[in-house]
Amino acid sequence: MRLARLTRLGALAIAGSLMAVAGQDLAAQSAGPPGRSKSTATWKAPRTPDGQPDLQGVWDFRNVIPLERPARFADKAFLTDEEIAEYEKEAAHRLDMDRRDDDPNRTPPVVNGQRATADVARAYNEFWWDYGKKFVGAKRSSLIVDPSDGKLPPLTAKGRKAADDFAARRARAAWGPEDRGVGERCILGFNAGPPFLPAAYNNNIQVFQTRDHVVILNEMVHNARIVPLDSRPHLTFAQWSGSSRGRWDGESLIVETINFYETTSFANSSPSMRLVEKFTRVEPDILMYEFTVSDETTWTRPFTAQLPMKKTSDYMYEYACHEGNYGMTGLLSGARAIEK
Asked: Is residue 6 part of a domain?
């Protein structure tokens, strides 16, 4: 697991009042892609030999900014330095797992809608966790930028039923492996996406580029998404990570993904989900990752989030999950023993 520690605070400064926020937000939009600081407004990414923006390298997407805006910041898209300092302090306390392993009150935290899980109850402490505990690249109160309230859209009736059905399967002994999530089954990691969201550890991707392809490698469950750039049609059959096709739009790589298989690691999404990701290198050490999810089966409208990623010189390591799927064998054996 990766144990690198983030030390640099993101540089985008936004004033606290609504008028100042509006004015600075418009200025940021006119200066260039979202997330770009004033000092780098005219900066452009270095080029690959074929002339495209060079996005290659290892990118760390740990971030304490929540997916959805907390209720106490209901009317604030951006936070003040004082509010950020207080939120980071609270987050560090909430995420601190360095307690006695036999503490009965020790429960894993919930980050971006996902509760951390361990292979054995209370087996992990702070040594193993690698949550983001700092604001990176922006002072937003949520990763969601649309809708403007910073919240996920309401679930549809089908979306609510799917969520309830999944919760019911989790509450009982598993009848089969399909009753467990794709993260627990080691098919996709809980933060591997697509789309990506910060989680307990292994919050890193590595990007490789050729003239005709881009490869996006997750550290979590070492899933490599190979994205053609040559305008070929999408696959006609489903994939766990969907069928991805990419194109360049100025300084940004646009990746569209459809044809997901059954479900992804993104909560409540359905096979009809359409995902559009945007990768823009806005500063030498910041890759702005933006994604828009459209899934009429699950949500009443599309939504968009922005997640700044920080360049790192650290290495990517293999994450073997439960090797040979022995963990699932034990889980199902235990469930049958409980039934007897």
From this structure: no
- Sign of the alpha-carbon torsion through 219, 221, 225, 226: positive
Give the C-alpha separation, 32 to 13, whole Å: 15
- Give the amino acid at 276: V
Please say if the pLDDT value at position 90 is more than 60.
yes
Model confidence at 193, pLDDT cuts 50, 70, 90, reads confident
Q: Quote the CA–CA distance of 161 and 155 in Å, as a whole number.
A: 9
Q: Is 148 within the bounds of a domain?
A: yes
The three-class DSSP label of residue 292 is strand
Q: Residue 256 burial by CB count (10 A; 0-12/13-18/19+): exposed, middle or buried?
A: middle
Q: Scanning the structure block, which residue is given the tokens 């330095």?
A: 81
Split into its structural domains, the chain has a count of: 1
Asked, as a colleague might, if the bond just before 271 is cis with ω within 30 of 0, I would say no
The pTM of this model reads 0.81
Please measure the distance between the N-terminal and C-terminal CA atoms of the chain and give it in whole angstroms.
Answer: 37
Residue 226 within any structural domain of the chain = yes
Residue 169 identity (one-letter amino acid): R
8 class by beta-carbon count within 10 Å (0-12 exposed, 13-18 middle, 19+ buried): exposed
Q: Which domain holds residue 39?
A: 18-339
Tokens at 77, concatenated: 């898209």
Q: Is residue 301 in some structural domain? A: yes
Burial class (CB in 10 A: 0-12, 13-18, 19+), 295: buried
